[in-house]
Amino acid sequence: MSPVVLPPRHEGELLERARALRGTEVPAAGLHTKGKVGELVERALGATGGSAAVWDFPELQIELKTVPVDARSGAPRESTFVCAVSLADADRAEWATSWVRAKLSRVLWVPIEIDEVRRRAVGEARLWSPTREQEAVLAGDFEEILGRVGMGDVEGVTARLGRWMQLRPKAAHGRVRTVVRGAEGERVETVPRGFYLRASFTGAILRDPAAVP
Amino acid sequence: MGSVRRLPSDLANQIAAGEVVERPASVVKELVENALDAGATRVKVELDQGGVALVRVSDDGGGMDPDDAVLALERHATSKIVHKDDLFALRTFGFRGEALPSIASIAKLTLVTRPRGAPEGTEVVVDGGALPIARPAGAAEGTSVAVRDLFFNVPARRKFLKSTGTEAAHVSEALLLSALARPDVSFFLVRDGRAVREWLRAGSRGDRVRQVLDGERLEACVGERGPMRLEAHLAPPERARAGTVGLHLLVNGRPVRDRPLARAVAQAYGSVLEPGRYPVGVVYVDVPPESVDVNVHPQKAEVRFADGRALYDAVSRELAGALARAFNLPATGPSRMWGTPRSPVVAGEAAATRFVPDPGPDPWDLGPAGAGIGTQDALRERIAVDVPSEGAGGAPANTALFERRGFYASLEFLSQVRGTFLVCGGADGLYVLDQHAAAERVTFHRLRRAYEARSMATQRLLLPDVVELLPAEIATLEEHGQAVEGLGVELRRVGPSAVAVHAIPTLLARARPERIVRDLVAELGRSARRPFGDAADLVLATMACHGSIRAGDAVTRQEALALLRALDDIDFAGHCPHGRPVVTRIGYDELERRVGR
């Protein structure tokens, strides 16, 4: 999907565009596929990253995250996908050089407010970077989760693991499988997975960017 | 002068370290075991950067005086054994006197210790195997050992280390094993300044297991056979994982890796675990110390049993019955069902510590006047099975609920959904059956019953189906010719690389004959070194899988009702032969809650 405007030249311009969208109603028609609302917002803001493994705004190194939230409470209705994970490389993955850290280093959050009659409108956007405390927790989650995969216990990693970030299946359909090595080198077929931010965390930072829930 | 020289002690220590210290987790294991052997009631482990930058283990144990603190860093200096006979009656985790000097030779080590009641402590510093420097120091009672910059002087070893997270996960696992070994001790793990594990002193092994495997639905099985005592806390088959990573084994309180023992535990689940999958849980095996040799592995992670085969057999049998009832599984262990040779643990004074194979009648099948494994009541006395109430373990009670006779027939069939699920209404909620798993379970049961009774009904094929195979595969089929016939599959060789299928079991009329033959070949090949009896369940399970209604098949109302009735005729309908649950319930209360009623 190509952008309808040129990419923003700097952070201020991006934020300005995002704020200008506030209150814009997102038509429901044709948006039954999950992610379509996000694509619309991307186009409106001039994102060029698409689904490739780059930032949505590569020149600015900013990631766009649209979050469906309850119009009244502002609470997110679901977790937020960050990026897919190469499970086979988990035993070498370090937070400092990880793609998930790069993606989360600068995020433009755009809430999509959904009311009781399922009407959707763009909420107030905000730019966010994790504070030192927040990053320590995210790094801890990353290491705890991928550490278990790295030691060969991919099946022991459930969505319950991780305080703010979790690892969950992420595949085009339920039959997709990837191969990782178990603790004793055995082949283990498992579903591809990706990192997600828990709704409790995104909800907190939408209210207070420095929150440590 | 000859070319043979005695190695300097620092080099000898580094070589020893190669065996003892593989990664930060090895350091933690050795130091925690020292702490436990010193009588600690609290053990705290701190890590920085996965333990590569820092591992600190602090305890409130007995501590050491200044002389012992220095001596402890010398090779083969230990307080744990004195005579060689002590090796065969070990009560401590360590005994080699190798760990501390090995660690000190490949890291920067600081040991701070104060014996109970002593006015001051001692600090000993060793950098990479150099001479220890000791000085008086203020210290809490007990011992704290800090290991910094692991492998700083052995870069070749350092590059074998994995990521920070992976190394930290190994440390966490090592501490978990120690915690399982010693429920009477409190353990704490701090990573990069964050407290990540806290297991407070527990009243029993069971309590500790529930602490460390929080969230797992575990069944407790306790039993005794001769000199062996067994305590297992195991999860349902659907929680099983590839490999043994979720199954923790402890022999005489010592965590061990023992693949045959793990297999014995998996075998107790019968056909519901596929080869290569092992249950989640913890198994404690206690045997007289003199019947197990722990001095066979530098890290003491492996042991050797005086008669391992008999022990494994006993473990399998002891667990099979308890697991069958707890998880509604097939009620027999594989070796008992198929009559393979039995090798009991012999009780009695003369043979109290030996496990002697005996092909005769099974002395573990206790008669009516014996300790009573033959009766349900007596069995309950021998093997306490703790089945928690629904929801207690945080997981749906998927099996006991459906044990009631007539339960499935009482359900009102509503519809087939997505060609996969059969949705039924019950008195307390909606029941969703996996149509393939349910049909597979029924087919498996019928196949197995017919196989046991040697009365497998067959359907002759009008035109034989020719299947191309490798010569080795044909040899395997011929080798097991009688067993294959017993399964209702009639084959004749036609040429060097093909067989003709003349008949298949009537129960598998849906399956393609070629599929059945290939399943047979695959399962027989996989169990090449075992007697066929042990593999029969797996063969039947695979055949049942490919001969049953599959996901995507349309199921008529009549077929669905027949399937429900058939499920009532089998006594372990909760899981398919591969361990997946057949049915799940969504309570009406849950539905009401979700729609805000």
Please render the helix and strand layout as text.
The complex is a heterodimer of chains A (213) and B (597).
Chain A: H1 11-20, E1 25-26, H2 36-45, E2 63-70, E3 80-84, H3 99-104, E4 107-114, E5 120-122, E6 126-128, H4 132-150, E7 165-169, E8 178-181, E9 187-190, E10 193-197, H5 199-207
Parallel strand pairs in A: 2-4
Antiparallel strand pairs in A: 1-5, 3-10, 4-5, 4-6, 7-10, 8-9
Chain B: H1 9-20, H2 24-37, E1 42-48, E2 54-59, H3 66-71, H4 99-105, E3 108-114, E4 121-127, E5 133-137, E6 142-148, H5 155-158, H6 164-181, E7 186-191, E8 194-199, H7 205-212, E9 219-225, E10 228-234, E11 241-242, E12 247-251, E13 254-256, H8 259-267, E14 277-278, E15 281-286, E16 292-293, E17 304-305, H9 308-327, H10 334-338, H11 376-382, E18 384-386, H12 407-410, E19 412-417, E20 421-425, E21 429-434, H13 435-452, E22 458-468, H14 471-479, H15 481-486, E23 490-493, E24 498-505, H16 513-526, H17 532-546, H18 557-568, E25 583-587, H19 588-594
Parallel strand pairs in B: 1-7, 12-15
Antiparallel strand pairs in B: 1-2, 2-6, 3-4, 3-6, 4-5, 7-8, 9-10, 9-18, 10-15, 11-14, 12-13, 16-17, 19-20, 20-21, 21-25, 22-24, 23-24
Helix pairs in contact in B: 1-4, 2-6, 6-7, 8-9, 13-17, 13-18, 14-16, 16-17
